[in-house]
Amino acid sequence: MMESSESLFDLEQDELPFAEVLVPLPLEQYFTYRVPRQFTDLAQVGCRVLVPFGRQKVQTGIVIQRHSKNPSVYEAKAIMDVLEERPSINAHQLSLFSWIANYYLCTEGEVLQAALPSGLKIHSEINVQLHPYYDADKEPEYPLTAHEQLLLDHLQQHDFIPFSEISKLIPLKDPSALVRSLVKKEAILLFEKLKDKFSPKTVRKISLHPDYQQKEKLQALFAQLESKGNSQKQVEVLLLLLQLQSLDNDDIGLAKAVHKSELINKGASASALKTLVKNGILHDFQETIARFQFRGETKSLPPLSKEQEQAKEAIITALSEKEVCLLQGVTGSGKTEIYMHLIEETIYNGHQALLLVPEIALTTQIVSRLQQVFGDKLGVYHSRFSDNERVEVWQKVQNDALQVVVGVRSSVFLPFENLGLVIVDEEHESSYKQFDPSPRYHARDVAVVLAHLHQAKTLVASATPSLESFYLAQEGKWGYVLLEKRFADAQMPDILLADMKKAKKRREMVQDFTPELLTQLRYVVEQKEQAILFQNRRGYAPFLQCDICAHVPRCKNCDVSLTYHQFSEEVRCHYCGYKEPVPASCEACGNSQLITVGLGTEKIEEEVVQLFPATKVQRMDLDTTRSKHSYQEIIDDFSQQKTQILIGTQMVTKGLDFDQVTLVGVLDADGLLRFPDFRASERSFQTLTQVSGRAGRKEKKGVVIIQTRDVQHPILQMVIHYQWREFYQYELNERRLFRFPPFVRLITITLRHRDKSSVKQAASQLARHLRSNLGENRVSEAHEPLISRIKNRFLMEITVKFERTGFNVQQGKAFIKQSGKSLMENKNFTGLEILYDVDPY
């Protein structure tokens, strides 16, 4: 980090000819650039600037500091352009970037890359044009393929084509080889062109020219047009325009412009419209409009029940004493209504509020409820939005045009100017943790720091809080409020265990359904109620297996089996994306009998459709929700009871609220319980409790059937009896005994390399170095992770545990990072990558 620049701003701007610029690259330092005189006043701290970087490359950087010190190591290049008059990044964000980089052992450039929307990054785009010496009429020296000829024919009609557009013109997934071939044949040239990604949304509008916006002049115009025999269509256009404007007063000047497309769709003659514009009677202009507009009417806040009101007051009291409060409210207790009232008070006091949700799927329901109250004050921010949509939300937050934002984890990077409250809904969810790429941050923890920087308050909430949050609340470091009663006296569902082992022994299983679950499912279908079926694995089956030799098709790039997807007739790797058609026979022995092993959501969907052919069934997982509006469509269909049975992965467990769901079925709880991770028990308890909470949220009491082969498992017994206090005490005792969070801080160091022996040697060397300096009780031996090869890179891991008290964690982190840097500079380990994951859970 550079020194503070506060004293430097006492100087005149002309005396600050240099700027420290942060670029969105994984580099440890800022870079000094010369500020040309024309940008002296514009290049403020936080502004986006265009800077040359490397060989003929351009980057969008952020000014971090202005100073007068000329760099001694290199000659400072000049800033090419300042991209805005007002900074996109404020002081709070710069402080947050610095904290994230230090805490999560990454660079500020990586944080900037994650934080800044793509639409705010000007980038250079590769374009293709015909070679100036190319002669289409001349016989080519080298023969051309059909695809090459097609591209050349297109370029003869256009000045150039972006490289990214070639695959739309020619049916090739990767046109690189085609382009290289044409460059070699001197038929085309490549060139770079700067492209600004953000463009505001505009519409064409039509209005009366000011000369005709008085009644007398308009009447004279009609008389003039009607006197001409060929102006009837122009008269019709004018009448239609006035009709759409719905004029009800004498002041035509107050009339609003009309969308040009609306005029045309209503039957206006395009040629007559063009003539009226040409003659200066109508004004055709372009207007910038917002991409997000709430068109309904807002409603008053929903009233709180006695229990909700008490919880709200308790939260306010807790936050008056502490910066953070944990709200533990059972599923269906009405936490969202409490959020609304807290947000309303925050806005009333002149501040902004941020509501974090773990999944895009959850935003669709919660946004519609909040929009009814907050209208255009509310904005939404997540990755399914286009670049332009995200930039528009970014700018509205910066201008204080949005008082409330609902968003996923990346929302913590928004440029809040006046933040007063941050709410983290379903704070236990693993979706808040960014795993790849860096920065590997946890949005809940970053949100707490963000609120602290703004001197704001943070409310974290869940029916099943994470052990870390619960521990902090019990230790008195956070406030704590408990809400144990469901809203409107709705009853908690009955949770039953169905013994799969016994059912299989008695041959009572119907495909993958126990008699208990199938009976309840039939009852729900007959009663026209709704059911949710949960299986935390997408695809048809986890893998295919040869019936003779037991060979399993595996990914060519990773040490994992390929998941079978029946609908697309392929086997696919869920780690690197590799896929291939379903093999016709076993590649090991040639046997044509390949069987499916395990259970995925796609297979469950097929079985349910077979069992209930007249029932509408939908599936919600990563494969069915790739398009922008797919979440909304699936949830809307289920909310409107167009769908009776919804099958899904963890997406269906996250805070969704449906009135008619009376049955939840968990197809296989054992996969959750037996996952090789220290948080398996916690994740299982949370997931099963959360998905159970989707049932019976209104008048009708719900039923939950959990299928398992171990009905006596202690975690399952705690789930079905709602023994959350016993669970937390049981799990905390286990964590204390084996030194796991929340009693230690955990860091996972992952080394990866294309050569297996090299990565093993490097990991062993790093582990020995860390163990000898930090202590053998704090650093594990190097070991292979559960999946030891991903994307053709071999992996090794080292686990570090730092006690929370009595040890300088920041010094320990700095030593780890410096040790890793020294190892990567070793010529024996060229190509080695080291990844740091702080709090890897």
TrEMBL record:
It holds the Pfam family DEAD. It comes from Shiella aurantiaca. Its EC number is 5.6.2.4. Residues 316-483 form the Helicase ATP-binding domain. It catalyses: ATP + H2O = ADP + phosphate + H(+); Couples ATP hydrolysis with the unwinding of duplex DNA by translocating in the 3'-5' direction. This is Replication restart protein PriA. Zn(2+) 1 binds at C546, C549, C586, C589. SMART domains: DEXDc, HELICc. Zn(2+) 2 binds at C555, C558, C573, C576. Its cofactor is Zn(2+). Residues 581-738 form the Helicase C-terminal domain. Coiled coil: none annotated. Belongs to the helicase family. PriA subfamily. PROSITE patterns: HELICASE_ATP_BIND_1 (PS51192), HELICASE_CTER (PS51194). Component of the replication restart primosome.
